[in-house]
Design a protein that fits this description.
The complex is a heterodimer of chains A (443) and B (266). With 443 residues, chain A is mostly beta strands. Chain A is built from two helices and 32 strands. Chain A has a single domain (77-120, 168-439), classed as Methylamine Dehydrogenase, Chain H. In chain A, the strands form nine sheets. Chain A has a four-stranded antiparallel β-sheet, with no helix packed on it. The longest helix of chain A has 6 residues, at 329-334. Chain A is globular. Chain B is mostly helical and 266 residues long. Chain B contains 14 helices and no strands. The two termini of chain B are 22 Å apart. The chains are: A mainly beta (443), B mainly alpha (266). Chain A binds chain B through residues 23, 80, 83-87, 173-175, 193-194, 218-219, 221-224, 226, 243, 272-277, 279-280, 283, 326-331, 333-336, 339, 407, 411, and chain B through 5, 12-16, 18-26, 50-51, 54, 57, 61, 69-70, 72-75, 77-78, 80-82, 84-86, 190-191, 194-196, 198, 201-202, 251, 254, 261-262, 265-266.
Chain lengths: 443, 266
């Protein structure tokens, strides 16, 4: 498939739209499953919505790849911790799919404190003809039962059920920012601001603490964990990023508590760019292994960087996401935008990376051609099967036609969460309460 | 309202009005005009002013952080590090000592410590509304619990005044200010920020002699009618049209919402 992002034509479909959107409808995470057949979103209201890709049909070839709602369920409810007098939000922070083992699908969803394992399965038959109950499930009068019959399974309309299978609670004092399924498919980790825990899928009442950066004296706290992920192939290896812009790679074979990292990735600070905001903008908001496992991608406020696992002292590639904001950092600090946590994703072949920006813009960088493109997820440009036009932000001086000036960017419209289909050029972009799905133009 | 930014005349989301060049040390520009709101203390170079404003802004953010039981830790730590960095730099280049010895400097030091000015919108000051409850947060900050509300109020107004008037006012006001306040307040902030004990909200409010009722009143937009009942106040809060209009507050409704929820829950 053509990898050149700039010339590629992208058609779009528009899935989720509430003109009466509330805070609870804001999408807080997006994730494709391992085949790309399903796409899960989580929102601030604690709901998980799963979309399924429509099967290709011969008479409507242009409809290939459209995603329709498959299942919706309430994953987390708002809770109140009476012991701490603390409200626990229902907002879904992350969703991770487990590799499919049978007809059912499994996914992990987490809010600030509790991880849940959900089973999503289909049912198209139901048992009929019980002896002791009638069709509505009420017990029958024993005196009326005169004969025995064998219950049978009868076909019915397809029903998708989501059932909670495990609840992993009470292991995090701080807010969970990441969950990651291990390549052994038996364990996963959950990371909060100061600790990372390792869980077995079968065991909910205990977990192993594998990283703990909480200082004995909390007044000395100057750094927090911002994201963590397992290596895609080596089940003993994981990375975590910090608010100081560093990444630590740990090997669980060395010791039970991975306090000492195996590798430490850090780029020396450029003295010419130093400011009071240096540390804040270098804080890493997302870390992702490439599918190959050879590279790590990190997103900080202004850039996205690609690191080679074999080189710790600097990234091999640095891409500017919105460098024009460098002169606006104080305002962005004042209105708290500087703390926005942008995520980043790889395409299926690790050759293109994508991440979000403001004004409903998102960026793609082709690692081979070094070309980049800015696209916009908006209702106006996203009529079904419309083609996305690249956008340009004008820096300084004259503004050309079709360009937008830095000052007219809308900082309340931000694209924090995106996902890329594991093998095809289909992307999902969450813009506040709307989910946009774009794909290569189908001819 | 207490969410008003440090320089109250500045629109919250306007990117043009302040620090267009960012705060890079290399970008020092003596001519830079910061909206004229700080014209009263032009003697200090603009870099220092910017740094001071950034420090003020950070302290407000930290203060808001520690009002929450569980603030966003990453954000709090990053802000706290920024404050530490500014403090370190000010100590190194001697600005800190200068501030402590000069009377105009004393003004900015007070401004920094007295967070109650941040609790007021400029419009309300202009209208001269008397609002009980304003001073409550500053007490927590200054560690001065003996002061009663009205006294704090007068300090608040005087702190605000020199921005537009001459700095002479400072000589007359409050001669016995505690010079250790800054360090103390910083420590308090860090402590509260890092204190994860379940009681932290109670701790915070226990230093405040006003009841939750007053906090509610304060959060509901400083109604001039202070006899309003608890629920009335909340209703007023939920319908922004009836509150004392201040566009700055709306941008932070969510945060406020959260605070109010906590208050109601507890």
């Amino acid at each position: 498939m053509e990898e050149d992002v700039e010339t590629r034509k992208i058609s779009s479909s528009f899935l989720r739209d509430h003109s009466y959107a509330t805070e609870a409808d804001i999408i807080s995470t997006v994730e494709f499953n391992h085949t790309g057949e399903l796409l899960a979103t989580g929102d601030k209201g604690g709901r998980v919505v799963i979309f399924q890709r429509e099967q290709e049909s011969k008479n409507q070839p242009h409809r290939r790849g459209e995603y329709n709602v498959y299942s919706t369920f309430q994953s987390h409810e708002p809770e109140f911790d009476y012991l701490k007098s603390l409200e626990i939000e229902e907002k879904i922070n992350k969703i991770r799919w487990l590799p499919q083992q049978n007809a059912a699908y499994f996914l992990l969803s987490t809010n600030d404190k509790t991880v849940k394992l959900w089973k999503v399965s289909e049912r198209d038959k139901r048992p009929e003809g019980y002896n002791l109950k009638d069709e509505d499930g009420r017990l029958r009068d024993p005196s009326m039962i005169t004969m025995l019959r064998v219950p049978v399974l009868r076909p019915m309309d397809l029903m998708v059920e989501a059932t909670p299978r495990r609840v992993f609670a009470n292991a995090h004092t701080y807010h969970i920012n990441s969950i990651s399924v291990n390549s052994d498919y038996e364990t996963y980790m959950s990371a909060d601001d100061l600790r990372i825990n390792l869980w077995n899928f079968e065991i909910t009442n205990q977990s192993f603490n594998i990283v703990d950066i909480k200082p004995a004296n909390m007044e000395e706290l100057t750094e927090v964990i911002t994201a963590a992920e397992f290596h895609p192939h080596h089940c003993n290896t994981f990375v975590y990023s910090s608010s100081k812009g560093t990444i630590r790679l740990c090997d669980m074979r060395t010791s039970a508590l991975c306090d000492r990292h195996a590798k430490f990735f850090e780029e020396p600070e450029d003295p010419s760019n130093r400011s009071f905001f240096s540390e804040i903008i270098s804080s890493i908001s997302d870390v992702k292994f490439s599918h190959s496992g050879r590279y790590i991608m990190t997103r900080d406020y202004l850039t996205v960087k690609v690191w080679d696992l074999n080189m710790e002292n600097r990234p091999i590639e640095t891409y500017q996401v919105h460098d024009y904001l460098r002169s606006k950092l104080c305002s962005l600090y004042e209105n708290d935008c500087i703390f926005d946590k942008f995520e980043c994703v790889w395409n299926g072949s690790d050759s293109v990376i994508m991440t979000g920006s403001y004004n409903n813009f998102f960026r793609m960088f082709d690692r081979n051609t070094k070309r980049d493109v800015t696209l916009e997820a908006s209702r106006e440009n996203s009529k079904p099967r419309a083609i996305l036009k690249p956008r340009k932000v004008c820096v300084g001086g004259k503004r050309r036609k079709d360009e937008i000036s830095v000052d007219s960017l809308d900082f309340s419209k931000k694209i924090l969460h995106t996902a890329w289909h594991p093998s095809e050029n289909i992307i999902a972009v969450a813009a506040t309460n709307n989910l946009y799905i774009f794909q290569d133009k189908v001819n | 309202m207490f969410l008003t930014p440090v320089v109250p005349h500045r629109p919250f989301y306007n990117l043009d009005t302040m620090f267009v060049r960012g705060l890079k040390r290399k970008c020092f520009d003596g001519e830079e005009d910061i909206e004229g709101t700080l014209a009263g203390i032009k003697a200090i170079p603009s870099y220092n002013l910017q740094r001071q404003s950034l420090l003020d802004m950070s302290l407000v953010k930290l203060q808001l952080c520690h009002m929450l039981v569980e603030p966003n830790l990453c954000r709090s730590v990053l802000i706290a590090n920024t404050v530490r960095q500014i403090q370190e730099e000010m100590t190194q280049d001697g600005t800190w000592q200068m501030i402590n010895t000069q009377s105009t400097g004393q003004a900015s030091l007070d401004r920094l410590v007295s967070t109650d000015i941040l609790c007021r919108s400029s419009r309300e000051q202009a209208e001269g509304k008397h609002v009980p409850g304003y001073g409550t947060f500053s007490k927590d900050f200054e560690g001065d619990q003996a002061q009663d509300s009205s006294e704090t109020m007068s300090t608040a107004s005087s702190v605000q005044a020199p921005r537009n008037l001459q700095s002479d006012v400072w000589e007359m006001e409050n001669p016995q200010e505690n010079k250790g306040n800054f360090q103390k307040s910083l420590d308090q902030i860090f402590e509260t920020l890092e204190n994860k004990s379940p009681n932290s909200v109670e701790d915070l409010f226990s230093e405040v002699d006003n009841s939750y009722y007053d906090l509610d009143t304060m959060l509901t937009g400083m109604m001039s009618n202070t006899k309003m009942g608890h629920c009335d106040g909340l209703e007023t809060f939920s319908s922004p049209t009836t509150t004392t209009s201040n566009s700055n507050c709306k941008s932070d409704l969510n945060e406020l919402d959260h605070i109010v929820e906590i208050l109601v829950e507890s």
